[in-house]
Design a protein that fits this description.
This protein is of the alpha/beta class and 416 residues long. The chain folds into two domains: 133 residues, Rossmann fold, CATH 3.40.50.2300; 264 residues, P-loop containing nucleotide triphosphate hydrolases (Rossmann fold, 3-Layer(aba) Sandwich). The strands form two sheets. An eight-stranded mixed sheet has the order 8-9-7-10-6-11-12-13, with helices on both faces. It has a five-stranded parallel sheet with strand order 2-1-3-4-5, sandwiched between helices. It is elongated, with a radius of gyration of 27 Å. The C terminus is likely disordered. The structure holds adenosine-5'-triphosphate and magnesium ion. Adenosine-5'-triphosphate (ATP) binds next to helix 6 and helix 14.
Length: 416
């Protein structure tokens, strides 16, 4: 693709000599453009585009054998940077909608003169430059996000051990400590239940970002993300299992990059299934929180997970931090036993507190924000503080975003 100084390269596809001549003469008048040798039909069009690297492609609606919609589709898939413009005969104006939906950026109604043609090009050239600039800005933001911010994946190979509870309370504690925006993402795409656990009534989910991953911007992301009364930003799992099934890892990765550019901290509840999507999150995160209960089955699964991290996934050992939930359960294994079995130090523990935990889920309010003096809350705070230190980040004392506790409770409780 040309840089901002070089003339824009224009490829015209038409068998109409008059159109070709008019376009060529118009382009020769303006140093900002360079007309490439066109082709008359679609047989070798994709090859020609690959070879001649145009910025703009002009497609004559009446070019022989041109399956316009299919061709627009192919061009936008294979060459997403190329701007396509369709030359539409006056009597085919009704096709405008179909043409634009198929991926054309603009159309020119034929007959047209040189000035009209150059005016359309000028407008598109401006848009093109703006696009290039915002793309390079976005690239910078991505680098910044990757280098400086925190994405945490909470995972457990075993279900029901408290993965979602830990993710929710970690997100709330990070927000509390850092005074920065934290996004809680339900990465358990099938059967995720963060929305219900937080009493959120929204139809929006991560699936709403997937069709737009090629062009995500902050406005779109903020439209889709929900705001919990605590101030936590939440992106639930799709309510519809077929929407969840259709999400591909590469799209999820692009969606996550978009989210990381908007939210300084992202906590992902990735559930208990080591799918391609879960691994995608793990690849893109800074730390993986491995939640275990103090029992032998959990330990065996956790130790297998460490093995997979070491062999298949090649994660450094210190990327995974072990958190023992319900560590003081009666008849549970001791921390020493757990550390010996896993050959790592336990990073944090959460006490067994059925009442507070259930109350939190039933009310849709994180323990962190409702049970001021509970040991579970204190454990969440300690966990967040130590994690911030492990990430090498510093809490931002200046900003004050903490909500009044009673306000949060009264607005959120579904028990009234
Ligand atoms: N520290 C705790 N003390 C007592 N009960 C807890 C604790 N943490 C979680 N629980 C309870 O365990 C149950 C499962 O919790 P949670 O939904 O967070 O687990 P999960 O691993 O996300 O489950 P799933 O596999 O279904 O997604 C809930 O009823 C919750 O109240
Ligand atoms: Mg869960």
């Amino acid at each position: 693709m040309s840089n901002s100084q070089a003339p824009l390269r224009i490829l015209t596809i038409s068998a109409n000599e008059l159109i070709l001549e008019l376009i060529q003469t118009a382009l020769e008048r303006d140093e900002h453009y360079f007309g490439l040798d066109g082709v008359a039909h679609q047989d070798d069009l994709l090859e020609t585009i690959a070879r001649s690297a145009p910025d703009f492609v002009l497609l004559d609606f009446l070019a022989p054998n041109l399956q316009l919609v299919e061709m627009l589709d192919k061009i936008s898939l294979q060459f997403p940077e190329v701007v396509t413009i369709v030359i539409l005969p006056e009597d085919q104006v009704a096709e405008v909608h179909r043409v634009l939906m198929a991926g054309a950026r603009a159309f020119i109604i034929q007959p047209f003169n040189q000035n009209q043609f150059l005016t359309v090009l000028e407008r598109l050239a401006e848009l093109h430059q703006r696009n290039l600039k915002s793309k390079s800005d976005a690239a910078l933001q991505v680098e910044y996000a990757a280098a400086h911010r925190g994405t945490i994946v909470v995972f457990s190979p075993k279900g029901g051990v408290g993965c979602s509870s830990v993710a929710i309370n970690l997100a709330a504690a990070l927000m509390n400590e850092l005074k920065q925006e934290v996004l809680l993402l339900d990465g358990k795409l099938l059967f995720g239940d963060l929305d219900i656990m937080l009493n959120l009534k929204t139809q929006n989910s991560i699936a709403d970002l997937i069709p737009h991953v090629g062009a995500l911007d902050e406005g779109l992301i903020r439209d889709v993300v929900s705001v919990h009364v605590s101030g936590l930003k939440v992106l639930p799992a799709p309510a519809n299992p077929s929407a969840a099934h259709g999400i591909r890892p590469e799209d999820l990765h692009r969606a996550l990059i978009g989210l990381q550019t908007v939210f300084p901290y992202v906590v992902i509840d990735s559930g208990n299934f080591l799918s391609d999507n879960a691994v995608t999150f793990m690849d893109a995160c800074h730390k993986i929180i491995l939640v275990v209960n103090p029992d032998i089955a959990c330990l065996r699964d956790a130790s297998r997970f460490f093995e997979i991290c070491r062999t298949t996934l090649s994660f450094p050992k210190d990327k995974v931090l072990v958190v023992v939930n319900q560590h003081d359960q009666r008849d549970g294994l001791s921390l020493k036993d757990i550390e010996r079995a896993l050959q790592v130090k336990v990073f944090a523990t959460f006490p067994w507190d059925r009442r507070t935990s259930l109350q939190s889920i039933n009310r849709g309010v994180p323990v962190m924000l409702q049970a001021q003096n509970s040991p579970l809350r204190k454990a969440s705070m300690n966990f967040a503080t130590n994690l911030i230190a492990a990430l090498g980040h510093v809490p931002n004392e200046a900003a004050k975003t903490r909500k009044v506790l009673s306000d949060v409770l009264s607005k959120s409780s579904r028990l009234g």
